[in-house]
């Protein structure tokens, strides 16, 4: 059972690392440091282009409130992805030190004995399931964006007709100051927009799931320290164990500060933007005739 849980943890750890690598947010030194640095810059530029395209679409659709707010929500998500990548990029040295320190402490507690290992891994399934489900939801959203267009293209290919008579899934053609050509380049616009959506989704999934992973490591380490103090081994002295736990707790405090420094602006951004989106969604719902009639009926009944 322990080996199975350890394998599950390693799988979860690799999953988070691969997600961070895919969006250029994994800055732990390897032999591909220059490549990762360039990939981070490239991803930042791609996401900035994504934001600009959506801002253009919002501007062009300003007279159509419903479609404008749809693009406004996508713009906020894209801007959030840019903020996340930039924060990770600017604080890469801090993150390298943070990852090494926290990971070493966690691995030390994980390898201490079987009881502590079982206690640490007991909550792994819950946090890993949340990460997998969140990533799955984003994948389904991407498929929801792209599937109708892909089906239309496949249908055209089956009839030996590569048509461009479909709507771009992201901007609907409104994200550019020029007219999108209705020739073979139209397909490149489609692939380009899908790459933007995938990049933004990978960034959101990786950074958000990394927060859960780091919190899991910190909380599990604290639980392991508490378990050591309250369940001494026959060959251990209380004072020695207490000193060791206090020393580790002092090491964990800078890790906590680093986590707050990195994710504080990100969480603040989500709180503000989610409030804006919620207000806009409520306003959109109120504009619908069915909802308005329902609200009026409730008010009449209440009167």
From TrEMBL:
Main localization of the protein described in the UniProt heading: membrane
InterPro entries documented for this protein: 7tm6_olfct_rcpt
GO MF: odorant binding; olfactory receptor activity
Keywords: Cell membrane, Membrane, Olfaction, Receptor, Sensory transduction, Transducer, Transmembrane, Transmembrane helix
Cell compartments where the protein resides: Cell membrane
Topological relation to the membrane, as annotated: Multi-pass membrane protein
Pfam annotation, one family: 7tm_6
Segments crossing the lipid bilayer: 41-59, 71-90, 124-143, 266-286
Cellular-component GO terms for this entry: plasma membrane
GO BP, sorted A to Z: signal transduction
PANTHER family named among the record's database cross-references: ODORANT RECEPTOR, ODORANT RECEPTOR 19A-RELATED
Protein name: Odorant receptor
Organism: Cardiocondyla obscurior
